[in-house]
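Here is an idea for our session: we take a single protein and study its fold together. Which protein we use is up to you, so please pick one and set it down. Once you have written the record down, we can walk along the chain together:
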Amino acid sequence: MAQSAMSVEQLDRFLRAEFPQVFHDASGLTIEEVWHGGGRVRQSYQAEFIRPGGTISGPTMMALADFAMYVGLLASIGPVPLAVTTNLNINFLRKPAARDLIAECRLLKLGKRLAVGEVTILSEGIDEPVAHVTSTYSIPVK
């Protein structure tokens, strides 16, 4: 298995520098683990994520899935700030609990120009996924 191109610490520094509007201490986002071909991230529970009906909002889960995919991609190819989402499809499977969300990304295909992956989102401590996501990223030419 290939070594990851960036460590958790390197990704943390890179994302704080390149995307301070999204990745900062108050965001509640943390990178837990990375490997070549994927990674696991966490979104800490925040009351403002709750929508009417008492569930965590879809946009919160979509943003977490996109973040997980970006982390998994950069862990595999290195710091490429202009890699962008070209497609994201999410299936909401069950109501998430009022607790942290954990998203794990697995790249299904990593090519020169495109990466395709899937992300599973879980409520912390619960085995059944709350959402399943597929996503494609465009990788710019070097």
